[in-house]
């Protein structure tokens, strides 16, 4: 899998911009899920365990000011990055969660 960069802006304030880079696309998608879970924990500090479903994760992604995944692509000996937006991210996370679920006994 290809090197992937996550570009994230949580609010309209440009100071909320950040980025993370990952060895591959799956690690990036798992990172987005961790960011969502950290956000949930901050919003529910007294809860011992937190449950959510895919719609909650999708709502979180939709509420972000901006999110983009840049996926490395080899093209004619050059390394280029292909930008992917919210819809791609949501579909890719869904597919990742299905793969993870299907691997469990």
Strand content bin: 25-35%
Helix and strand run = EEHHEEH
The strand line-up of the biggest sheet is 2-1-3-4
- What share of the residues lie within helices? 40-55%
Helix and strand composition category: alpha+beta
Determine Rg (CA atoms, Å): 15 Å
Detailed description of the structure:
With 105 residues, the chain is of the alpha+beta class. The chain contains three helices and four strands, in the order E-E-H-H-E-E-H. Strand 3 and strand 4 form a beta hairpin. Helix 1 crosses helix 3. 10% of the residues are buried. Pfam families: ER (PF01133). InterPro entries: EHR_sf, ERH. It comes from Hypsibius exemplaris. This is Enhancer of rudimentary-like protein.
Task: Give a quick rundown of the structure.
With 105 residues, the chain is an alpha+beta fold. It has helices at 25-43, 54-63, 86-103, and strands at residues 4-9, 17-22, 66-75, 78-84.
Descriptive terms for the model:
single chain; 105 residues; alpha+beta; 3 helices; 45% helix
Question: How are the secondary structure elements laid out?
Answer:
Blueprint: E1 4-9, E2 17-22, H1 25-43, H2 54-63, E3 66-75, E4 78-84, H3 86-103
Antiparallel strand pairs: 1-2, 1-3, 3-4
Helix pairs in contact: 1-3
Family: Belongs to the E(R) family.
Protein name: Enhancer of rudimentary-like protein
InterPro entries: EHR_sf, ERH
């Amino acid at each position: 899998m290809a090197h992937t960069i996550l570009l994230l802006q949580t609010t309209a304030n440009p100071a909320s911009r950040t980025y993370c880079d990952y060895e591959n696309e799956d690690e990036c998608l798992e990172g987005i899920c961790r960011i969502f879970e950290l956000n949930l924990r901050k919003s529910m500090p007294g809860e011992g365990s937190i449950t959510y479903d895919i719609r909650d994760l999708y709502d979180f992604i939709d509420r972000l000011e901006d999110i983009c995944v840049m996926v490395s692509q080899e093209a004619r000996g050059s390394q280029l990055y292909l930008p992917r937006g919210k819809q791609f991210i949501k579909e890719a996370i869904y597919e990742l969660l299905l793969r993870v679920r299907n691997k469990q006994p």
